[in-house]
Design a protein that fits this description.
By secondary structure, the chain is an alpha/beta fold. It has 15 helices and 14 strands. Helix 10 crosses helix 13 (284-294) and helix 13 (284-294) runs antiparallel to helix 14 (299-314).
């Protein structure tokens, strides 16, 4: 199989680099400065076992790649807010022997949240969800790093909305030869919703910086409690913290590479890069949506969604909001709902 990585940033670049390092065919898809750097200088992947440069075919869209092969696997690794454009571009791409990508090629959604798979199912017949537990960082154009060892990450995968098949098992086997654990599960969404709960604090980190104080940690717990209440009301199952710890164990220990320390997760990195967008609509916003559908107030997640979007739109610096200010706004949001 050949892997076409749509969105060769932190997560996509790490997956693509690790697959290439174990001998698999990989094509990288990027845009802007990332595309130019990957095309001209290759993908530089820094991991605990060294720094590797992978000179891989790099394109900026399906037109540049040409007709897809029947054994291609599309790996969607853009941020969820960019999924619709990517799906619209790649769905009609022709495949050798006839048909289109949407009709014939498997699509893996290797992203945070749960929305991209739903978007993909509107176009693609064969959609696979991936619960991404992969600490990775976009360093600069052409360079990404991943600090996990002995495994680089754990990637639960399965058909969306449920089930498994031989394709999932073949992909998992390739990933497991490439420094990942890749459990094939019939209920991948149960793992994705568990990850969603842990990602609700991404906005707190992006707004105020590392969550290393008691007050910020307490706010994170309140934000997660809203999410748990919403999932309970919606009847959505998710893997427990105990189950996640049992699976992860000590398989992915973080050893930061030399150079600049990893400042934060995906939302933090969006603000640092000044992309103008952030994934809060599909993390905190997913909880807000479900809360409105099932009559559960979600003032904290609504606040974080609004603030994160404001920071991204106005390109405010990551971590520039004082924790005390965020706590004050959170208390005001909760009080407003209670008084309404």
């Amino acid at each position: 199989m050949r892997y076409v990585i749509i969105g060769a940033g932190a997560v996509g670049g790490t997956i693509g680099g690790r697959l290439a390092g174990s001998g698999h065919e990989v094509v990288l898809v990027a845009r802007g400065a990332q595309y130019a750097a990957l095309r001209d200088g290759g993908l530089r992947l820094t991991v605990p076992d060294g720094e590797f440069t992978h000179r891989l075919p790099t394109v900026d869209g399906p037109g540049a790649l040409g007709t897809l092969r029947s054994d291609d696997v599309l790996v969607l690794a853009v941020k969820t807010q960019d999924s619709e454009a990517a799906l619209q571009a790649w769905g009609p791409a022709p495949v050798e022997g006839g048909g289109t990508a949407a009709e014939r090629v498997p699509l893996l959604c290797a992203q945070n949240g749960v929305e991209s798979a739903r978007l993909a199912l509107r176009r693609f017949r064969r959609v696979y969800g991936v619960c991404v537990w992969l600490p990775a960082t976009y360093v600069e154009p052409g360079a990404v790093s991943a600090a996990g060892t002995p495994l680089t990450g754990i990637l639960h995968l399965g058909r969306t909305p449920g089930g498994t098949d031989e394709t999932a098992r073949l992909i998992a086997a390739d990933l497991e030869k490439s420094r990942f654990e890749a459990p094939v599960v019939p209920d991948v969404q149960r793992w994705q919703y568990a990850k969603l709960l842990s990602n609700l604090g991404n906005a707190v980190e992006a707004l105020t910086g590392p969550v290393d104080g008691e007050e910020a940690a307490a706010l994170n717990a309140r934000v997660r409690a809203e999410g748990e209440a919403v999932l309970a009301a919606a009847g959505i199952a998710y893997a427990s913290a105990e189950e996640q710890r049992a699976v992860r164990g000590d398989k992915v220990t973080l050893i930061p590479p030399d150079g600049p320390a990893r400042g934060g997760g995906s939302s933090w990195q969006s603000l640092v890069r000044g992309t103008g967008t952030i994934e809060a609509d599909h993390l905190n916003g997913e909880i807000v949506l479900l809360g409105r559908l099932h009559g559960v107030p979600t003032p904290l997640n609504e606040l974080l969604q609004h603030l994160a979007n404001t920071f991204a739109r106005e390109r405010r610096p990551a971590g520039s909001m004082p924790v005390d200010e965020l706590l004050r706004l959170a208390d005001e949001a909760v009080a407003f709902v209670q008084e309404s």
